[in-house]
Design goal:
The structure holds 2 protein chains of 2 kinds. By secondary structure, chain A is α/β, with parallel strands linked by helices. Chain A contains 11 helices and 8 strands. A 4-stranded parallel sheet of chain A has the order 2-1-3-4. In chain B, helix 1 packs parallel to helix 7, helix 2 packs antiparallel against helix 8 and helix 5 runs antiparallel to helix 7. Chain B is an all-alpha fold. Classes of the chains: A alpha/beta, B mainly alpha. The interface between A and B is large, with 72 and 69 residues.
Chain lengths: 264, 441
């Protein structure tokens, strides 16, 4: 039990001890509340614990980054959320932020500076790649050795911020066979959740976007569909269920793949 | 009397260029109806974008077939323009092939023009086939019905005619040179028109001269007409692609515009010393509208974007909403913005610089809320555009108007925003429970 116990310090508790965490792990709403995404959060924390990364979370002091509000057109609500979060982050003197959600990543990295929040923001795949390269984390066992893994580029990580390689390098480090969908990287097809679509029904059409993307993934006959975003994960998992393939093809976050390969 | 052709040429040239200048001034006036923009970021990077994206056609080549064909037409357009320079000098001074003194260089130039002209004829034919026979789906979307379809084909026909006239002119010239006709210096190499020339065998010098002069005049008049057609067509991209790529976004595409109007309101709300009941000062400016309902609410770069769009539809073919049958088409967003801007521009011109409300606006009369709400903000359209147009920014500005001025978001989004306001998450969970996952197994 104690072995599996996650160590998740909060910024408040670290500050109370007069210490500082090197990195703030921004968990995000999905990572905090969504049952599927919570598994990703825990897998990532296991890796952070294993690599002895000095990190902390905001816990109850964290609030929605404002991404869905801004993309819905509610700039007011976005700026109010941002102002609150920036006040919290600045009060702890946060310098570096890591998050497993590309929407939080994009918002904190690109849209908080204009409102007074300046941090080095990285996506968790970027941090994981650094940990492996610095030798702070090693992979053995190779559960995914030789498996066909395809990576779905989250729009807010890829096109929006040009991060295409970090997640792919991690898949290669698993000794897995990276297979690309016909639309990948700059041309990656959206999962359908962005721009606050996650929270509403789609407009009338002849297909759901997540089904279209799932079909593209199935075309390359992967053993695993890898994602790097909790919302993409939900959309593709739903797509796979729709195609009744959930027993054969899991949709997993890169952090989950690494945690399993590192036997965590 | 000997100077009559030169005088006519001068008048035609002045009329062509003059009318074009008037239209361009109107275009600039229309663009200035939008909000002004402060340009940020390095000029160096902006020039680099012009060099790579506009001059270098870098984004066109992501679709290799249309990319290479377009490259041919583009190079033809750029290089054959050197020939137009000669035509203008000849026309004004009554000379013939004034650059002939260049000798071998001249032969190489003319040969290059001819080969390019032939390649343009072929490329334009393939374009026409792709559009009208193969019926590529992006050319057959609902917004392409009527004028846009005619416009596209008309441009192809004009290019054909211009290239054809150029080659006929050279073929007749070659015959005249071989016949040793007066005035026709022996100059130039004609790798393409030398195949047309035999068709003219046996024609008299007079008839050949008429044919050569006719083709020459029609060619230059055609070019001037085409120049003036630009303003009324989708073809303005041949000029506007350059300023448009210069003004393209330099920040990451995920970084959406910072709304300063809202920032001021938020600052006021958070200022403990601000008096919430204070009446605004008598000379206070009218507060700016949140977001965009009409073209005047958009910024000048967005309006330039609309004029730059050549309706290629690469954005629409990459749009996930459009691919799955939703009404949204990023190309239509740009076309609607341009059409409405033309309408507002005409209205403003007729009413002496003051827009007289016409009971219409971009939102609702051109672009429906359904289209706007179908966007996933995935940036595929922005990435796909070969000339740095940003349809997404217009969609987002219009969403801001719908939500902040009209409270007209879909009910599900209102729920989501209510949740964020009340408990700091898009779902109805208690903020105090944000760390509960750490205790769960």
């Amino acid at each position: 039990m104690s072995e599996n116990q996650l160590i998740v310090p909060t910024m408040a508790s670290v500050a109370a001890k007069g210490k500082e965490a090197e990195i703030l792990f921004w968990v995000g709403c999905a990572g905090s509340f969504d049952d599927r995404a919570k598994k990703i959060t825990k897998a990532f924390v296991k890796i952070l614990n294993k690599a002895s990364v000095s990190f902390a979370v905001l816990g109850a002091e964290e609030s929605c980054s404002g991404d869905p509000a801004k993309r819905s057109g509610n700039e007011f609500l976005f700026q109010m959320q941002a102002a609150g979060n920036i006040a919290t982050l600045n009060s702890y003197g946060v310098k570096k932020v890591v998050t497993a959600c590309p929407h939080c990543f994009n918002t904190l990295k690109n849209e908080y500076p204009a409102l007074g929040g300046n941090y080095e923001v990285v996506h968790h795949t970027q941090l994981l790649k650094d940990l492996l390269e610095e030798g702070r984390l090693s992979l053995q066992g190779g559960v995914y050795k030789g498996k066909k893994i395809t990576f779905h580029d989250p729009c807010y990580l890829g096109r929006a911020n040009g991060v295409y390689e970090a997640p792919r390098e991690l898949i290669k480090k698993l000794d897995a066979q990276l297979v690309e969908m016909k639309n990948c990287k700059q041309k990656g097809l959206c999962c359908g959740a962005g721009g606050a679509q996650m929270f509403k029904d789609a407009e009338p059409g002849d297909k759901e976007i997540n089904i279209a993307r799932t079909e593209e993934a199935l075309e390359v006959a992967p053993d695993v569909i890898a994602a790097g975003c909790p919302f993409c994960n939900t959309m593709l998992s739903d797509g796979i269920k729709n195609k009744e393939k959930e027993a054969e093809i899991p949709v997993l976050d890169i952090a989950e793949l690494i945690a399993q390969a590192a036997d965590l | 009397m000997a100077y009559l052709p030169q005088i006519i040429f001068l008048l035609v040239l002045l009329a062509g260029i003059g009318f074009f200048t008037l239209n361009i001034r109107q275009l600039i006036k229309n663009i200035k109806l939008g909000r002004s923009v402060t340009l940020e970021g390095s000029k160096r990077e902006r020039y680099k974008n012009v060099a790579l994206i506009a001059f270098g056609q870098s984004k066109m080549l992501s679709k290799p077939v249309s990319g290479i064909l377009h490259l041919v037409v583009y190079l033809g357009f750029l290089i054959i323009n050197i020939e137009v320079l000669e035509i203008i000098i000849d026309g004004l001074f009554g000379t013939h092939r004034i650059f002939a003194f260049l000798g071998t260089t001249y032969n190489v130039l003319i040969a290059t023009f001819e080969i390019l002209a032939a390649l343009v004829v072929v490329a334009v034919a393939v374009f026409w086939l792709r559009r009208n026979v193969l019926k590529l789906s992006r050319f057959w979307k609902p917004e392409m019905k009527g004028w846009p379809k005619k416009d596209a084909n008309l441009i192809l026909y004009i290019e054909w005619v211009l290239m054809g006239l150029f080659l006929i002119m050279n073929a007749a010239d070659l015959q005249l040179q071989q016949l040793g006709a007066d005035h026709y210096v022996s100059a130039g190499a004609f790798p393409v028109s030398s195949f047309i020339s035999p068709l003219l065998d046996g024609m008299s010098v007079d008839n050949l001269t008429m044919l050569e002069r006719g083709a020459w005049w029609l060619h230059i008049i055609g070019i001037l007409c085409f120049l003036n057609y630009l303003y009324y067509s989708k073809h303005l991209h041949i000029m506007l692609a350059f300023p448009n790529t210069y003004l393209g976004k330099l920040t990451p595409s995920g970084q959406f515009a910072h709304n300063e109007t809202v920032a001021k309101e938020v600052a006021l709300m958070m200022d403990p010393n601000a008096d919430p009941f204070a009446a605004p000062a008598a000379d206070a400016p009218i507060p700016e509208r949140f977001g965009a309902a009409d073209v005047m609410d958009l910024n000048q770069i967005q309006l330039l974007n609309a004029y730059t769009c050549t309706e290629c539809g690469r954005c629409t073919s990459e749009c996930p909403a459009n691919q799955t049958g939703k009404k949204l088409s990023p190309r239509k967003i740009m076309m609607d913005t341009r059409d409405r801007l033309q309408e507002v521009g005409e209205n403003t011109k007729l009413n002496k610089g003051e827009f007289k409300p016409d009971g219409k606006q971009l939102l609702g009369d051109y672009i429906s809320a359904e289209e706007l709400w179908a966007c996933t903000s995935c940036n595929a359209c922005v990435e796909a555009c070969p000339v740095s147009i940003d349809p997404l920014s217009i969609i987002m500005d219009m969403r801001q108007y719908l939500v902040m001025e009209q409270s007209a978001a879909p009910a599900a989004l209102n729920n989501m925003m209510g949740n964020i306001e009340n408990n700091g998450a898009p779902w109805p969970y208690n903020q105090q429970d944000r760390l509960q996952w750490a205790q769960e197994n």
